């Protein structure tokens, strides 16, 4: 069963072999290793990570924090990468049953809920 997974050279995560090519292509475009701590960081957040992430101690980086999308406890040092991937998952909107990316679900529900209220009163 070990052969069913491969380790991504960029983010160091174990990825199912069937999904490895897609993961690696996505990972190389959106993630980069921090030259200081060797942690995978979304490229768009690298400057922020390097300015603020290295000011805290290693102990603090290992404390559990909650993912805003799935509410799972994740180490602070892994939160950026976890939320980057987790926020791209889709769930059905409870108001309109359309699949919505989790990162946009709150905004969608505001628009979707106000649209339903207008349809009901109109």
From TrEMBL:
Source lineage: Eukaryota, Metazoa, Chordata, Craniata, Vertebrata
Assigned keywords, A-Z: Metal-binding, Zinc, Zinc-finger
Alphabetical list of PANTHER family matching this protein: TRAF-TYPE ZINC FINGER PROTEIN-RELATED, XIAP-ASSOCIATED FACTOR 1
Protein name: XIAP associated factor 1
GO cellular component: mitochondrion
Pfam families linked: TRAFD1-XIAF1_ZnF
GO MF, any single term: zinc ion binding
Domain TRAFD1/XAF1 zinc finger stretches: 77-113
């Amino acid at each position: 069963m070990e052969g069913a997974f491969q380790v991504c050279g960029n983010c160091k995560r174990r990825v199912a072999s069937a999904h490895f090519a897609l993961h690696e292509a996505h990972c190389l475009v959106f993630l980069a290793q921090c030259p200081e701590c060797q942690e995978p960081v979304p490229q768009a957040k690298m400057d922020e990570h390097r300015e603020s992430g290295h000011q805290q101690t290693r102990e603090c980086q290992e404390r559990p924090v909650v993912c805003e999308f799935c509410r799972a406890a994740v180490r602070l040092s892994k939160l950026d990468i976890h939320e980057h991937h987790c926020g791209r998952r889709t769930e059905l909107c409870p108001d309109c049953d359309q699949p919505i990316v989790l990162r946009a679900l709150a905004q969608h529900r505001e628009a979707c809920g106000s649209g339903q209220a207008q349809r009901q009163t109109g």
